[in-house]
Amino acid sequence: MRMRAEPTTPGSTGSPWAIVAAVFAGCWTVAVTVLAQTGGWAVEQVVLIGGLDRLVPLWPVVCVLTVLLIAAATLPLALIPRSATVRVTGRLWFAGALVLGVLGLLRTIPPVHHEAYLAALALVAMLLAVVTTRLPAHVLGPGRPPETSQPEYAPESPDGPGAVTAEPVGGPGAADLAGRPARLDARPSVAALLAVAAGLALLLPWVWLGALGGLLETILAGLGAAAVGVLAAALLDARFWARFEAGEPPRPAGLVLVGGLVAGVALLLVGAGTGHSGAHLPLLVTLPPTGFALAALRAVTRHPAGAGGRAPTAWLVGLGVFGPLAFTDPEEVSLLLVGTRDVPFWVAAATGAALAVGLVLAVGYALLLARPSARAPGRALAGASALTLLVTVGLVGGAAGQPGLYGERLFVLLREQADLSGVSGGPGRAGRDARAGEVYRRLVDTADRTQADLRRDLRRARLPHTPYYLVNAIEVDGGPAVRAWLSRRPEVARVLVNQRLRPLPAPADSASATGDAPPPSGPPWHITMIGADRVWSELDVTGAGVTVGSSDSGVDGGHPTLAGGFRGGDDSWFDPWNGTGTPADRSGHGTHTVGSAVGRGGIGVAPGAQWVGCVNLDRNLGNPAAYLDCLQFMLAPFPPGGDPFRQGRPARAPEILTNSWGCPPIEGCDPRALRPATAALEAAGILVVAAAGNTGPFCGSVQDPPAPYADVLTVGAVDDRRRVTAFSSRGPTISGATKPDLMAPGAEIVSAMPGGGYAVLDGTSMATPQVAGVVALMWSANPELIGDLDRTRRILAETADPVETDGPSRDQTDDCGGPPNIAGAGLVNAYEAVSAARG
C-alpha cells in the first residue's frame, strides 16, 4: 500500500530531527563565519606587522573554505527534510554563504585602492541581487503558500493611523489576498518608513564616532551599501517570510523569533562579505539583530505571497552597512594602532553602540509591532519618526562628530630631481654649512622651476596642495580622477597614495606620565656595553658642540634628562601634525629615543650634545609627506609658520639625524619614495642614522625606506649577551645591498618617557639613537670629522666588536647571504670609535 505524504503548511517545521539539524547548521554557520573572518583579518595583521608581502590569495582561500564548510551543513537542510520551512532555511543560508564567497573575493583588491573596491562591491552586489530575484521560485523557497494560510490583511485606510498598511509592490496587475486589484501608491509604506528610522538609528554611532573619507569614496560607499541592501532584500523576500507566518490567524511571535533568527544568520553571512578587511568586522556584530526587526516589520504589512515587499529590508540593511563602510578606513582598523584610543578603539565603541541600538530595535519593534493585538502606527507617525532620526543624525554629525571629508591625499613625484653633483666644502663645521647651503639652493631652484606649471594648474583647479623641495614633489588633495590626470602629465614621474589618518572624536591616549621603570641609578647596561661611560670618564668627551635631530613622535622637552639639552631658538622644533609651539610627545616613542641619544643622568650616549625635534609620526601611521616634512626641516630649519622654500636656515641644520621609523607600503611609500631626500642630506654632509626595522628574523626584511638606502647608516639590535635579537631585520635589501651596517643594544633599553618617567622598550628603534650618540661623541672629539661621512662610517665599521648571529630563535640553516646581512660590521664600540676619531 502506498503511503501518502503528509502535507506541510507554511509554518510547519516537520520532525524534531529536522529542527535539531537546523539548529546545528545555524550554530555551525555562525561559528565558521565568525572564526574565518576574524582569523583572516588576524593573519593579515600579523603579515603586516611582520613586514611581509601582502598575501593576495588569503581571502580567496578563506572564502572558498568558508563556503565549503557552510555548504556541508546547509545543503542537506536544503535538499532532504520534508519540512518546507527547514528547506527554505537551508537554501537561504547556502545562498548567503555563496554571497559571502563572491563578495569576499573582492578583498584581493589592495586596500590602498579603496574606491576601486567600493565600486566593485556596488556592481557585484547589484548583479547578485538581479540574479537572486530572477531565480525560479522553488530555488530559494517552495513558492506560494496554500490559500489556507492567508495572513491577516486590511487595506490601508487613508483616514487615520492604526490601519494596517498593504504595500502594493507587485506592479500593475498585482492583487491582494482577496483577489482584488491592488491600489498603486507611490508613497512610502509604514514599514519602509519605520525601516528608515531604524537604519538611521544604526547609523547614528558611526556619524558620532567616525569620519568620512573623500567625496568619491563616500559616494561609492553609499552605492555599495545600497546595493548590499537590495541584495539582502532579494534574499529575504516574501517567499522567505511566508514560511514563518504560521497558522490562521498568523502568530507574530513565531514569525519574529524563528524567522528573525534565520534572517539574522543570513545577514551575518552578507555582512561577512561586505567591506574590506577590517571594515567588515563590525557588520558581523551589528547586522544579525536587524533580522528580528525586519521580522517585526513584516508583521506590520503582511504582503500577499509572491509579492515583493523588499523596501524595508533594503533601507534597514543599506543604512546599517553604510555606517562602517563609509565612516571607517579599513587600513586604520589595524593592530598598528591598537594600544591607544585610536581608530580601532572608536570602531569598537561604535560597533558596541550600534549593537545596543540593534538589540533595542529588535525588542522594541517586536513588542510594538508583532503582538497579536498590535496595530501598526500610521504613516504620519512613521514618517515623523524617520524625519526626527534624520535630523538627529545631521545634528550629531555636525556638532559632536567630525564633519568634513578626510580622503587620502596624493604624493606626486616629479621626473626631474636636483643635480647635486660636485657639491663640496671644506672640513669641519664651516665646510658642512657651506655644503648644506649649496644643496638647499639647488633643491629650491629645481623645485621652483619644474613645479611652476603644475602648481598653476592645481590653483586653477582649486586643488589644495603642498610643494616640497628635498624630494621634488607635491602633496595634492584628490582621488582616483585627479591621480589619473596627474599621472598623464609629462613632468610627473609617478603618483603615490599619501595615507591620511581620519580624525578622532577625542585625542588618543598620551603616554604614561610616570613610565613603568625606576630612574636609573647609574649608567644602564647598554651604555657600559658599548663603552660610552668610559668615553665620558677617560676621554672627557660628552658630545658637546654637536646637535642631533630627531624625527619621531615628538619629545617631552620638560623631561629632566632632556630639558637642558634642547638647542632652543625659533627653529629647533616643528610639529606639522598638531602645531605645538614647544616640544611635546603624546606617544613616548620619540622621548625614549632622544633620551637614548643625548639624555643626561646616565641614560644617553652623548649627554653633552644638544637636540632639535620634529613630529613625523603622531599616531603610529605616517605617510611620505609627513616624513618629508621633518627631513626637510632638518636640512634647513625655519621659524614657526615660515616658508620652507624661502626661510630655511641650512647653517642651523643638525649634524646627525636619528630616525627610528620606516615608511611601508601601507603608508604610501614605494622603495624609491624618499631616495632623493637621503641623497640630498648626504650631499649636505648630514649623517642619517635609521632603524633597520623589527621584522626579523626573516631574511630580506630590511625593506621600508629609508633603511635600505646606501647613504643611510642602518642599525640593527642585539641583546645583553651580544646576540642579534630575533626581531632585528635582516638583509640583503631588494637591490642586493648588504644591510644592516651596524648593531647596537636594542633589548630592554631604559630611557625617558613623557612626564618625567622612564620605561623599558625593545626594538631597533632603541638601538638607532645610540649609534647617533656615538657619532656625536666622535665629532665632538674631533670637529674636523663633521660632515666627513665616509671616514666616519669607516671608523665605526673598523672599531666594531663581533656579535653572535646564530641566536636560538633563528633558523641557523639560513644565513641571509652571510653574517654581514644579519649583523653588519658588528656592535658599535663607542670608546674605540672615539679614540680612533681623535687619532
TrEMBL record:
Protein name: Peptidase S8
Similarity annotation: Belongs to the peptidase S8 family.
Start and end residues of each Peptidase S8/S53 domain: 543-810
Alphabetically ordered keywords of this record: Hydrolase, Membrane, Protease, Serine protease, Transmembrane, Transmembrane helix
InterPro entries: Peptidase_S8/S53_dom, Peptidase_S8/S53_dom_sf, Peptidase_S8/S53_subtilisin, Peptidase_S8_Ser-AS, Peptidase_S8_subtilisin-rel
UniProt region (Disordered), positions on chain: 140-170, 799-823
Superkingdom, taxonomy of origin: Bacteria
